[in-house]
Protein backbone atom coordinates (compact mmCIF):
# COMPACT_ATOMS: atom_id res chain seq x y z
CA UNK A 1 0.00 0.00 0.00
CA UNK A 2 2.55 2.53 1.17
CA UNK A 3 4.98 2.21 -1.74
CA UNK A 4 5.15 6.00 -2.04
CA UNK A 5 6.86 6.08 1.37
CA UNK A 6 9.63 3.65 0.37
CA UNK A 7 12.79 5.26 -1.06
CA UNK A 8 13.42 4.41 -4.70
CA UNK A 9 16.65 2.56 -3.94
CA UNK A 10 14.67 0.08 -1.88
CA UNK A 11 12.09 -0.42 -4.62
CA UNK A 12 14.83 -1.03 -7.20
CA UNK A 13 16.34 -3.71 -5.03
CA UNK A 14 13.11 -5.37 -4.11
CA UNK A 15 13.52 -9.12 -3.91
CA UNK A 16 12.24 -11.31 -6.67
CA UNK A 17 10.71 -13.65 -4.12
CA UNK A 18 7.57 -13.12 -2.05
CA UNK A 19 5.42 -14.85 0.49
CA UNK A 20 2.11 -15.80 -1.10
CA UNK A 21 -0.86 -16.45 1.15
CA UNK A 22 -3.89 -17.99 -0.51
CA UNK A 23 -6.66 -20.52 0.01
CA UNK A 24 -6.62 -23.66 -2.11
CA UNK A 25 -9.57 -26.07 -1.86
CA UNK A 26 -10.50 -24.54 1.47
CA UNK A 27 -7.01 -24.87 2.97
CA UNK A 28 -4.95 -21.77 3.71
CA UNK A 29 -1.31 -21.81 2.58
CA UNK A 30 1.49 -19.34 3.09
CA UNK A 31 4.54 -20.12 0.96
CA UNK A 32 7.56 -18.15 -0.17
CA UNK A 33 8.01 -18.35 -3.93
CA UNK A 34 9.80 -16.55 -6.76
CA UNK A 35 7.73 -13.86 -8.45
CA UNK A 36 8.14 -15.50 -11.84
CA UNK A 37 6.54 -18.79 -10.75
CA UNK A 38 3.22 -19.25 -12.54
CA UNK A 39 0.20 -20.26 -10.51
CA UNK A 40 0.21 -23.62 -12.32
CA UNK A 41 3.82 -24.33 -11.30
CA UNK A 42 3.11 -23.07 -7.79
CA UNK A 43 0.19 -25.46 -7.32
CA UNK A 44 2.17 -28.42 -8.65
CA UNK A 45 5.66 -27.75 -7.31
CA UNK A 46 5.11 -25.84 -4.07
CA UNK A 47 1.80 -27.31 -2.91
CA UNK A 48 2.29 -30.70 -4.63
CA UNK A 49 -1.26 -30.51 -5.96
CA UNK A 50 -0.38 -32.28 -9.19
CA UNK A 51 -3.98 -32.69 -10.36
CA UNK A 52 -3.64 -29.42 -12.27
CA UNK A 53 -1.82 -30.32 -15.48
CA UNK A 54 0.32 -28.19 -17.74
CA UNK A 55 -0.09 -28.92 -21.43
CA UNK A 56 0.97 -26.00 -23.58
CA UNK A 57 1.94 -23.47 -20.85
CA UNK A 58 0.64 -20.56 -22.90
CA UNK A 59 -3.10 -20.62 -22.50
CA UNK A 60 -4.21 -22.63 -25.50
CA UNK A 61 -4.88 -26.18 -24.31
CA UNK A 62 -6.93 -25.57 -21.16
CA UNK A 63 -5.38 -28.42 -19.11
CA UNK A 64 -4.28 -26.03 -16.34
CA UNK A 65 -7.70 -24.42 -15.86
CA UNK A 66 -8.57 -23.77 -12.19
CA UNK A 67 -11.13 -21.56 -10.47
CA UNK A 68 -10.17 -18.32 -8.80
CA UNK A 69 -12.89 -16.71 -6.67
CA UNK A 70 -15.49 -18.88 -8.41
CA UNK A 71 -14.45 -18.16 -12.01
CA UNK A 72 -12.36 -20.35 -14.30
CA UNK A 73 -8.90 -19.05 -15.25
CA UNK A 74 -5.77 -20.40 -16.92
CA UNK A 75 -3.31 -21.03 -14.08
CA UNK A 76 -0.40 -20.91 -16.57
CA UNK A 77 -1.34 -17.34 -17.52
CA UNK A 78 -0.83 -15.71 -14.15
CA UNK A 79 1.93 -15.54 -11.60
CA UNK A 80 1.37 -17.09 -8.21
CA UNK A 81 2.07 -13.74 -6.50
CA UNK A 82 -1.06 -12.46 -8.23
CA UNK A 83 -3.16 -15.09 -6.44
CA UNK A 84 -2.18 -13.63 -3.06
CA UNK A 85 -5.33 -13.30 -0.94
CA UNK A 86 -7.50 -15.20 -3.42
CA UNK A 87 -9.49 -18.41 -3.25
CA UNK A 88 -8.44 -21.20 -5.62
CA UNK A 89 -10.30 -24.40 -6.47
CA UNK A 90 -8.44 -27.19 -8.26
CA UNK A 91 -9.61 -30.59 -9.46
CA UNK A 92 -8.60 -32.03 -6.07
CA UNK A 93 -11.30 -29.89 -4.49
CA UNK A 94 -14.19 -31.17 -6.61
CA UNK A 95 -14.85 -34.41 -4.71
CA UNK A 96 -16.25 -34.21 -1.21
CA UNK A 97 -15.01 -36.74 1.37
CA UNK A 98 -13.82 -39.11 -1.31
CA UNK A 99 -17.08 -39.04 -3.21
CA UNK A 100 -16.91 -37.92 -6.83
CA UNK A 101 -18.89 -34.83 -7.81
CA UNK A 102 -21.85 -35.50 -10.14
CA UNK A 103 -19.76 -34.17 -13.02
CA UNK A 104 -16.82 -36.45 -12.20
CA UNK A 105 -19.16 -39.44 -11.80
CA UNK A 106 -20.64 -38.70 -15.23
CA UNK A 107 -17.16 -38.50 -16.78
CA UNK A 108 -16.51 -42.00 -15.43
CA UNK A 109 -19.90 -43.37 -16.47
CA UNK A 110 -19.61 -42.02 -20.02
CA UNK A 111 -15.94 -42.91 -20.58
CA UNK A 112 -15.23 -39.21 -21.04
CA UNK A 113 -11.51 -39.69 -20.52
CA UNK A 114 -8.82 -42.01 -21.77
CA UNK A 115 -5.33 -40.85 -20.86
CA UNK A 116 -6.83 -38.28 -18.46
CA UNK A 117 -4.28 -35.55 -19.05
CA UNK A 118 -6.81 -32.94 -20.15
CA UNK A 119 -9.54 -34.06 -17.73
CA UNK A 120 -8.84 -31.66 -14.81
CA UNK A 121 -9.19 -28.71 -17.17
CA UNK A 122 -12.41 -30.04 -18.66
CA UNK A 123 -13.88 -30.65 -15.20
CA UNK A 124 -13.12 -27.13 -13.99
CA UNK A 125 -14.29 -25.48 -17.22
CA UNK A 126 -17.56 -27.39 -17.02
CA UNK A 127 -17.97 -26.68 -13.31
CA UNK A 128 -17.82 -22.95 -14.07
CA UNK A 129 -20.05 -23.32 -17.14
CA UNK A 130 -22.76 -25.47 -15.51
CA UNK A 131 -22.95 -23.19 -12.48
CA UNK A 132 -24.10 -20.40 -14.82
CA UNK A 133 -25.99 -22.50 -17.33
CA UNK A 134 -27.63 -25.46 -15.53
CA UNK A 135 -29.71 -26.52 -18.56
CA UNK A 136 -27.46 -26.13 -21.61
CA UNK A 137 -28.03 -27.35 -25.15
CA UNK A 138 -25.49 -29.64 -26.76
CA UNK A 139 -24.37 -26.71 -28.93
CA UNK A 140 -23.75 -24.57 -25.85
CA UNK A 141 -21.68 -27.32 -24.26
CA UNK A 142 -19.61 -27.63 -27.44
CA UNK A 143 -19.08 -23.86 -27.41
CA UNK A 144 -18.05 -23.89 -23.75
CA UNK A 145 -15.45 -26.58 -24.45
CA UNK A 146 -13.73 -24.89 -27.39
CA UNK A 147 -10.96 -23.76 -25.06
CA UNK A 148 -10.03 -27.27 -23.92
CA UNK A 149 -8.13 -29.72 -26.08
CA UNK A 150 -8.48 -33.50 -25.80
CA UNK A 151 -6.51 -35.76 -28.11
CA UNK A 152 -8.08 -39.08 -27.06
CA UNK A 153 -11.84 -39.01 -26.82
CA UNK A 154 -12.98 -37.08 -29.88
CA UNK A 155 -15.07 -35.03 -27.41
CA UNK A 156 -18.32 -36.92 -27.96
CA UNK A 157 -18.24 -38.72 -24.63
CA UNK A 158 -17.20 -35.53 -22.81
CA UNK A 159 -20.23 -33.71 -24.20
CA UNK A 160 -22.52 -36.61 -23.25
CA UNK A 161 -21.05 -36.60 -19.74
CA UNK A 162 -21.58 -32.84 -19.40
CA UNK A 163 -25.21 -33.04 -20.53
CA UNK A 164 -25.89 -35.97 -18.22
CA UNK A 165 -24.20 -34.17 -15.31
CA UNK A 166 -26.34 -31.09 -15.94
CA UNK A 167 -29.43 -33.28 -15.84
CA UNK A 168 -28.38 -35.06 -12.63
CA UNK A 169 -27.47 -31.78 -10.95
CA UNK A 170 -30.88 -30.30 -11.87
CA UNK A 171 -32.63 -33.37 -10.46
CA UNK A 172 -30.53 -33.13 -7.27
CA UNK A 173 -31.32 -29.46 -6.79
CA UNK A 174 -35.04 -30.04 -7.43
CA UNK A 175 -35.00 -32.86 -4.88
CA UNK A 176 -33.27 -30.57 -2.39
CA UNK A 177 -35.77 -27.74 -2.98
CA UNK B 1 8.44 -22.58 -19.38
CA UNK B 2 9.40 -19.82 -16.99
CA UNK B 3 9.76 -16.09 -17.40
CA UNK B 4 13.10 -14.36 -16.91
CA UNK B 5 13.32 -12.98 -13.34
CA UNK B 6 11.59 -9.68 -12.61
CA UNK B 7 10.73 -7.53 -9.62
CA UNK B 8 7.04 -7.55 -8.90
CA UNK B 9 5.14 -4.44 -7.84
CA UNK B 10 1.48 -4.33 -6.92
CA UNK B 11 0.40 -0.71 -6.48
CA UNK B 12 -3.04 -0.09 -4.99
CA UNK B 13 -3.75 3.24 -6.66
CA UNK B 14 -3.23 4.98 -10.01
CA UNK B 15 -0.79 7.62 -8.64
CA UNK B 16 1.30 4.87 -7.08
CA UNK B 17 1.41 2.94 -10.36
CA UNK B 18 2.34 6.11 -12.27
CA UNK B 19 5.16 6.87 -9.87
CA UNK B 20 6.59 3.37 -10.35
CA UNK B 21 6.29 3.72 -14.14
CA UNK B 22 8.11 7.04 -13.99
CA UNK B 23 10.92 5.98 -11.66
CA UNK B 24 11.71 2.41 -12.62
CA UNK B 25 13.89 1.43 -15.56
CA UNK B 26 12.30 -1.08 -17.92
CA UNK B 27 8.98 -1.37 -16.10
CA UNK B 28 6.05 -3.04 -17.85
CA UNK B 29 2.43 -2.74 -16.70
CA UNK B 30 0.71 -6.11 -16.31
CA UNK B 31 -3.04 -6.08 -17.03
CA UNK B 32 -4.91 -9.37 -17.53
CA UNK B 33 -1.72 -11.08 -18.68
CA UNK B 34 -3.42 -13.26 -21.29
CA UNK B 35 -0.89 -12.12 -23.91
CA UNK B 36 1.93 -10.66 -21.81
CA UNK B 37 2.46 -13.79 -19.69
CA UNK B 38 2.97 -15.99 -22.80
CA UNK B 39 5.41 -13.37 -24.18
CA UNK B 40 7.31 -13.55 -20.89
CA UNK B 41 7.39 -17.33 -20.53
CA UNK B 42 8.43 -17.72 -24.17
CA UNK B 43 11.08 -15.06 -23.43
CA UNK B 44 9.86 -13.03 -26.37
CA UNK B 45 9.93 -10.19 -23.85
CA UNK B 46 11.79 -9.68 -20.61
CA UNK B 47 11.44 -6.79 -18.19
CA UNK B 48 13.21 -5.81 -14.99
CA UNK B 49 9.99 -4.76 -13.34
CA UNK B 50 6.37 -5.78 -13.69
CA UNK B 51 3.75 -3.37 -12.38
CA UNK B 52 0.64 -5.39 -11.68
CA UNK B 53 -2.49 -3.26 -12.21
CA UNK B 54 -4.87 -5.92 -10.88
CA UNK B 55 -5.09 -4.42 -7.40
CA UNK B 56 -6.24 -0.97 -8.50
CA UNK B 57 -10.05 -0.98 -8.13
CA UNK B 58 -10.40 2.53 -9.59
CA UNK B 59 -9.34 1.18 -13.02
CA UNK B 60 -12.27 -1.21 -13.19
CA UNK B 61 -15.72 0.17 -13.99
CA UNK B 62 -18.17 0.68 -16.79
CA UNK B 63 -20.71 3.49 -16.75
CA UNK B 64 -22.72 5.80 -18.96
CA UNK B 65 -22.74 9.56 -18.54
CA UNK B 66 -24.41 12.09 -20.83
CA UNK B 67 -24.66 9.78 -23.84
CA UNK B 68 -21.12 8.48 -23.39
CA UNK B 69 -19.94 5.03 -22.38
CA UNK B 70 -16.82 5.06 -20.22
CA UNK B 71 -14.94 1.83 -19.45
CA UNK B 72 -11.99 1.58 -17.06
CA UNK B 73 -8.89 0.00 -18.58
CA UNK B 74 -8.82 -2.94 -16.15
CA UNK B 75 -12.46 -3.92 -16.66
CA UNK B 76 -12.53 -7.66 -17.38
CA UNK B 77 -13.80 -8.95 -20.71
CA UNK B 78 -16.01 -11.38 -18.80
CA UNK B 79 -17.51 -8.54 -16.74
CA UNK B 80 -18.37 -6.64 -19.92
CA UNK B 81 -19.80 -9.76 -21.54
CA UNK B 82 -22.08 -10.39 -18.55
CA UNK B 83 -22.99 -6.70 -18.08
CA UNK B 84 -26.69 -5.87 -18.35
CA UNK B 85 -25.75 -2.26 -19.08
CA UNK B 86 -23.67 -3.23 -22.11
CA UNK B 87 -26.46 -5.44 -23.54
CA UNK B 88 -28.75 -2.42 -23.42
CA UNK B 89 -26.50 0.38 -24.62
CA UNK B 90 -23.70 -1.17 -26.69
CA UNK B 91 -24.62 -4.69 -27.87
CA UNK B 92 -21.88 -4.81 -30.53
CA UNK B 93 -19.31 -4.91 -27.75
CA UNK B 94 -20.80 -8.21 -26.66
CA UNK B 95 -21.01 -9.49 -30.25
CA UNK B 96 -17.23 -8.97 -30.34
CA UNK B 97 -16.50 -10.26 -26.83
CA UNK B 98 -18.15 -13.59 -27.65
CA UNK B 99 -15.40 -14.08 -30.24
CA UNK B 100 -12.47 -13.32 -27.91
CA UNK B 101 -10.61 -16.29 -26.46
CA UNK B 102 -12.52 -18.50 -24.04
CA UNK B 103 -14.43 -18.10 -20.79
CA UNK B 104 -11.26 -18.75 -18.77
CA UNK B 105 -9.19 -16.16 -20.65
CA UNK B 106 -12.00 -13.58 -20.57
CA UNK B 107 -12.13 -13.94 -16.78
CA UNK B 108 -8.69 -12.32 -16.61
CA UNK B 109 -8.38 -10.48 -19.92
CA UNK B 110 -9.15 -6.75 -19.83
CA UNK B 111 -10.27 -4.18 -22.38
CA UNK B 112 -7.27 -1.95 -21.66
CA UNK B 113 -4.82 -4.83 -21.93
CA UNK B 114 -6.18 -5.70 -25.35
CA UNK B 115 -6.03 -2.07 -26.53
CA UNK B 116 -2.42 -1.69 -25.34
CA UNK B 117 -1.23 -5.04 -26.68
CA UNK B 118 -2.67 -3.91 -30.03
CA UNK B 119 -2.64 -7.25 -31.79
CA UNK B 120 -3.80 -6.55 -35.37
CA UNK B 121 -6.48 -9.21 -34.95
CA UNK B 122 -7.85 -7.80 -31.67
CA UNK B 123 -11.60 -7.32 -31.75
CA UNK B 124 -11.80 -4.63 -29.05
CA UNK B 125 -9.59 -2.18 -30.96
CA UNK B 126 -12.03 -2.69 -33.83
CA UNK B 127 -15.04 -1.90 -31.65
CA UNK B 128 -13.30 1.22 -30.34
CA UNK B 129 -12.54 2.29 -33.94
CA UNK B 130 -16.19 1.86 -34.97
CA UNK B 131 -17.19 4.29 -32.23
CA UNK B 132 -14.42 6.90 -32.78
CA UNK B 133 -13.38 6.20 -29.19
CA UNK B 134 -11.16 8.42 -27.07
CA UNK B 135 -8.45 6.83 -24.94
CA UNK B 136 -7.33 8.65 -21.80
CA UNK B 137 -3.74 8.07 -20.73
CA UNK B 138 -2.11 9.36 -17.57
CA UNK B 139 1.42 9.83 -16.33
CA UNK B 140 2.92 11.62 -13.31
CA UNK B 141 3.17 14.64 -15.61
CA UNK B 142 -0.57 14.80 -16.24
CA UNK B 143 -3.10 13.27 -18.58
CA UNK B 144 -4.02 13.49 -22.26
CA UNK B 145 -6.63 12.09 -24.58
CA UNK B 146 -5.78 10.17 -27.72
CA UNK B 147 -8.27 9.66 -30.53
CA UNK B 148 -8.58 6.02 -31.55
CA UNK B 149 -7.44 6.89 -35.11
CA UNK B 150 -4.12 8.09 -33.63
CA UNK B 151 -3.75 5.22 -31.14
CA UNK B 152 -1.47 3.02 -33.25
CA UNK B 153 2.12 4.23 -33.47
CA UNK B 154 3.41 1.15 -35.25
CA UNK B 155 2.96 -2.62 -35.30
CA UNK B 156 1.66 -3.68 -31.86
CA UNK B 157 2.69 -0.40 -30.27
CA UNK B 158 0.27 2.28 -29.12
CA UNK B 159 1.29 5.93 -29.20
CA UNK B 160 2.06 6.24 -25.50
CA UNK B 161 5.44 7.08 -24.04
CA UNK B 162 7.27 5.07 -21.40
CA UNK B 163 5.75 6.61 -18.27
CA UNK B 164 2.16 6.72 -19.58
CA UNK B 165 -0.62 4.32 -18.78
CA UNK B 166 -4.07 3.84 -20.32
CA UNK B 167 -6.77 4.64 -17.75
CA UNK B 168 -10.05 4.46 -19.64
CA UNK B 169 -11.74 4.43 -23.01
CA UNK B 170 -14.82 6.47 -23.83
CA UNK B 171 -17.18 6.53 -26.77
CA UNK B 172 -20.46 8.06 -27.80
CA UNK B 173 -23.44 5.75 -27.55
CA UNK B 174 -25.49 5.02 -30.62
CA UNK B 175 -29.28 5.63 -30.58
CA UNK B 176 -31.45 3.00 -28.97
CA UNK B 177 -32.43 0.23 -31.39
CA UNK B 178 -29.50 0.80 -33.75
CA UNK B 179 -28.37 -2.09 -35.91
CA UNK B 180 -25.11 -3.83 -35.09
CA UNK B 181 -23.11 -6.82 -36.27
CA UNK B 182 -19.62 -8.17 -35.66
CA UNK B 183 -18.41 -11.29 -37.44
CA UNK B 184 -15.05 -12.90 -37.96
CA UNK B 185 -13.20 -15.56 -39.87
CA UNK B 186 -10.76 -17.72 -37.94
CA UNK B 187 -9.28 -21.17 -38.42
CA UNK B 188 -11.23 -22.61 -35.52
CA UNK B 189 -13.93 -21.10 -33.36
CA UNK B 190 -12.35 -18.66 -30.85
CA UNK B 191 -8.93 -18.69 -32.53
CA UNK B 192 -7.30 -15.40 -33.44
CA UNK B 193 -9.29 -13.70 -36.16
CA UNK B 194 -7.74 -13.70 -39.60
CA UNK B 195 -10.22 -11.03 -40.61
CA UNK B 196 -13.18 -9.55 -38.73
CA UNK B 197 -15.66 -6.88 -39.62
CA UNK B 198 -18.12 -4.77 -37.67
CA UNK B 199 -20.99 -2.50 -38.62
CA UNK B 200 -23.24 -0.03 -36.81
CA UNK B 201 -26.27 1.32 -38.61
CA UNK B 202 -29.45 3.27 -37.92
CA UNK B 203 -32.72 3.27 -39.83
CA UNK B 204 -34.05 6.76 -40.56
CA UNK B 205 -37.65 5.52 -40.25
CA UNK B 206 -38.24 5.97 -43.96
CA UNK B 207 -36.48 2.94 -45.42
CA UNK B 208 -33.10 4.65 -45.61
CA UNK B 209 -29.84 4.34 -43.75
CA UNK B 210 -29.21 7.09 -41.20
CA UNK B 211 -25.89 6.90 -39.39
CA UNK B 212 -23.42 4.18 -40.40
CA UNK B 213 -19.98 3.03 -39.23
CA UNK B 214 -17.98 0.20 -40.80
CA UNK B 215 -14.58 -1.33 -40.14
CA UNK B 216 -12.44 -4.36 -40.91
CA UNK B 217 -9.59 -5.76 -38.82
CA UNK B 218 -6.86 -8.05 -40.04
CA UNK B 219 -5.85 -5.99 -43.08
CA UNK B 220 -3.39 -3.69 -41.38
CA UNK B 221 -1.69 -2.95 -38.08
CA UNK B 222 -4.87 -1.18 -36.96
CA UNK B 223 -8.58 -1.39 -37.78
CA UNK B 224 -9.47 -0.12 -41.24
CA UNK B 225 -12.45 2.25 -41.20
CA UNK B 226 -14.36 1.98 -44.47
CA UNK B 227 -15.09 5.69 -44.81
CA UNK B 228 -15.81 5.58 -48.56
CA UNK B 229 -18.31 2.78 -48.01
CA UNK B 230 -19.93 4.76 -45.19
CA UNK B 231 -20.37 7.73 -47.54
CA UNK B 232 -21.89 5.47 -50.20
CA UNK B 233 -24.47 4.13 -47.75
CA UNK B 234 -25.36 7.31 -45.94
CA UNK B 235 -28.95 8.38 -46.63
CA UNK B 236 -29.52 5.57 -49.16
CA UNK B 237 -32.20 2.91 -49.30
CA UNK B 238 -30.13 -0.26 -49.00
CA UNK B 239 -30.12 -3.04 -51.58
CA UNK B 240 -27.94 -6.13 -51.87
CA UNK B 241 -26.17 -4.45 -54.82
CA UNK B 242 -25.43 -1.31 -52.81
CA UNK B 243 -23.94 -3.32 -49.94
CA UNK B 244 -21.85 -5.37 -52.38
CA UNK B 245 -20.59 -2.18 -54.04
CA UNK B 246 -19.76 -0.60 -50.68
CA UNK B 247 -17.93 -3.75 -49.56
CA UNK B 248 -15.78 -3.63 -52.68
CA UNK B 249 -14.08 -0.51 -51.30
CA UNK B 250 -12.16 -2.84 -48.95
CA UNK B 251 -9.95 -3.52 -51.98
CA UNK B 252 -8.78 0.10 -52.03
CA UNK B 253 -7.30 0.01 -48.53
CA UNK B 254 -3.68 -0.46 -47.59
CA UNK B 255 -2.54 -3.85 -46.36
CA UNK B 256 0.23 -4.76 -43.93
CA UNK B 257 3.56 -3.19 -44.84
CA UNK B 258 6.07 -5.78 -46.00
CA UNK B 259 8.40 -5.05 -43.10
CA UNK B 260 5.95 -6.79 -40.76
CA UNK B 261 6.05 -10.03 -42.70
CA UNK B 262 9.04 -11.08 -40.58
CA UNK B 263 6.93 -10.75 -37.45
CA UNK B 264 4.33 -13.15 -38.71
CA UNK B 265 2.02 -10.72 -40.48
CA UNK B 266 0.51 -10.81 -42.98
CA UNK B 267 1.69 -14.31 -43.80
CA UNK B 268 0.86 -15.89 -40.47
CA UNK B 269 -2.00 -17.86 -41.94
CA UNK B 270 -3.01 -16.47 -45.26
CA UNK B 271 -1.94 -14.28 -48.12
CA UNK B 272 -2.76 -10.56 -48.26
CA UNK B 273 -5.00 -11.20 -51.23
CA UNK B 274 -7.06 -13.69 -49.27
CA UNK B 275 -7.31 -11.28 -46.33
CA UNK B 276 -8.61 -8.63 -48.71
CA UNK B 277 -11.13 -11.07 -50.16
CA UNK B 278 -12.30 -12.08 -46.67
CA UNK B 279 -12.53 -8.42 -45.67
CA UNK B 280 -14.87 -7.72 -48.55
CA UNK B 281 -17.06 -10.75 -47.84
CA UNK B 282 -17.31 -10.05 -44.11
CA UNK B 283 -17.91 -6.33 -44.61
CA UNK B 284 -20.87 -7.15 -46.84
CA UNK B 285 -22.24 -9.68 -44.37
CA UNK B 286 -22.10 -7.32 -41.39
CA UNK B 287 -23.72 -4.51 -43.39
CA UNK B 288 -26.64 -6.80 -44.21
CA UNK B 289 -26.91 -8.13 -40.65
CA UNK B 290 -26.69 -4.66 -39.08
CA UNK B 291 -29.36 -3.33 -41.42
CA UNK B 292 -31.69 -6.23 -40.60
CA UNK B 293 -31.29 -5.43 -36.94
CA UNK B 294 -31.77 -1.71 -37.57
CA UNK B 295 -35.14 -2.34 -39.18
CA UNK B 296 -36.07 -4.65 -36.33
CA UNK B 297 -35.67 -8.06 -37.87
CA UNK B 298 -34.26 -10.62 -35.51
CA UNK B 299 -30.99 -12.19 -36.52
CA UNK B 300 -29.27 -14.94 -34.62
CA UNK B 301 -25.80 -14.22 -33.36
CA UNK B 302 -23.37 -15.79 -35.80
CA UNK B 303 -20.98 -18.19 -34.16
Describe this structure in words.
Chain A has 177 residues and is of the alpha+beta class. Chain A contains six helices and five strands. Chain A has helices at 8-12, 39-46, 102-109, 119-132, 138-144, 156-176, and strands spanning 17-24, 27-34, 65-68, 71-74, 87-89. A five-stranded mixed β-sheet of chain A has the order 2-1-5-3-4, with helices on both faces. The N and C termini of chain A lie far apart (45 Å). Chain B is α+β, with helices and mostly antiparallel strands and 303 residues long. Chain B folds into three domains: 7-52, Uridine Diphospho-n-acetylenolpyruvylglucosamine Reductase, domain 2 (2-Layer Sandwich); 57-172, Uridine Diphospho-n-acetylenolpyruvylglucosamine Reductase, domain 3, CATH 3.30.465.10; 179-294, CO dehydrogenase flavoprotein, C-terminal domain (Enolase-like, domain 1, 2-Layer Sandwich), CATH 3.30.390. Chain B has helices at 14-23, 36-41, 77-81, 84-89, 91-97, 103-108, 111-117, 123-130, 227-233, 240-248, 272-294; strands at residues 7-9, 27-30, 49-52, 62-65, 68-72, 134-139, 142-147, 152-154, 157-158, 165-172, 179-186, 193-203, 209-217, 224-225. In chain B, strands 4-5-10-6-7 form a five-stranded antiparallel β-sheet. In chain B, strands 11-12-13-14 form a four-stranded antiparallel β-sheet, with helices on both faces. In chain B, strands 1-3-2 form a three-stranded parallel β-sheet, covered by helices on one side. The chains are: A alpha+beta (177), B alpha+beta (303). Chains A and B meet through helix 1, strand 4 and helix 4 of A and strand 1, helix 1, helix 2 and helix 6 of B.
Amino acid sequence: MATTEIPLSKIENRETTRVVTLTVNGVRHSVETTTRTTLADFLREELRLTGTHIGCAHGVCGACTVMMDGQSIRSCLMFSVQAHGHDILTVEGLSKEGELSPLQACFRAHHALQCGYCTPGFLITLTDFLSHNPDPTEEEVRQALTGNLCRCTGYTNIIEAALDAAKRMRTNSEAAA
Amino acid sequence: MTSAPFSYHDPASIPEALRLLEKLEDAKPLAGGQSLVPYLVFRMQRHRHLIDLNNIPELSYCATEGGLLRIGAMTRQRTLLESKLIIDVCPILQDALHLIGHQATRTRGTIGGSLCNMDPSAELFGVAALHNATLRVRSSRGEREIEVKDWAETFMKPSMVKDEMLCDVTWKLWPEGHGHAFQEFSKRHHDYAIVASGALMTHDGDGKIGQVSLMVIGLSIKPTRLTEAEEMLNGKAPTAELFAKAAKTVREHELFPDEFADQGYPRRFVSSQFRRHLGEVYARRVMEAAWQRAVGQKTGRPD
